[in-house]
Structure formats: C-alpha cells, structure tokens
Specification:
Structural class: alpha+beta
Distance between the termini: 31 Å
Shape: globular
Largest sheet: 3 strands, antiparallel
Order of helices and strands: EEHEHH
Strand content: 35-45%
Number of helices: 3
C-alpha cells in the first residue's frame, strides 16, 4: 500500500494587472520513505484561505486519507 502525505500548494493567477493567490492540495506518494515529491493527486485553486486549507491537510494526514478520496474531501470542504 502506498503511503500518501498531503501538502498545501500555492499558485498565483494573473489576468492583466490583476492577480490573486490561491491554495490547493497535493498528495505525495511515499514522500517520507524515499524523500521524493512525486505527486499522485492534486486539486488546484481550492481557496484563498490558507489557514483553513492547512487545517484540512492536517486532518487528511492524521487520518491517512487515501488519495482516491481527495476530490470528495475537497468537495465537502467547499460546501461547508
């Protein structure tokens, strides 16, 4: 079974002179075991609230969420 570690990603979106920062979630495979950062799943542009997303990522890591459920968790996060 693959061990997954979740992390927060940060992206800057620009259109003309306007720009905004948004955060997403990336799932890294076996990051602790082999020291790599191979992304096996990700969701971009989830929220501009970094603290709320960091809390969600912490829960995903603590509960050892399977990467196949990442989109469901993000959808639940966005509807609450």
């Amino acid at each position: 079974m693959m061990n997954v570690t979740y992390g927060v990603t940060e992206e800057i979106y620009s259109l003309g002179a306007a720009s905004r920062v948004s955060y997403g979630i990336a799932a890294y495979a076996d990051a602790v075991e082999d020291g790599t950062a191979t992304i096996v799943a990700s969701v971009h542009d989830v929220t501009s609230d970094k603290q709320a997303l960091c809390e969600l990522v912490s829960i995903c890591n603590r509960l050892e969420l399977s990467s196949v459920h990442l989109m469901d968790v993000v959808e639940d996060f966005l509807t609450n």
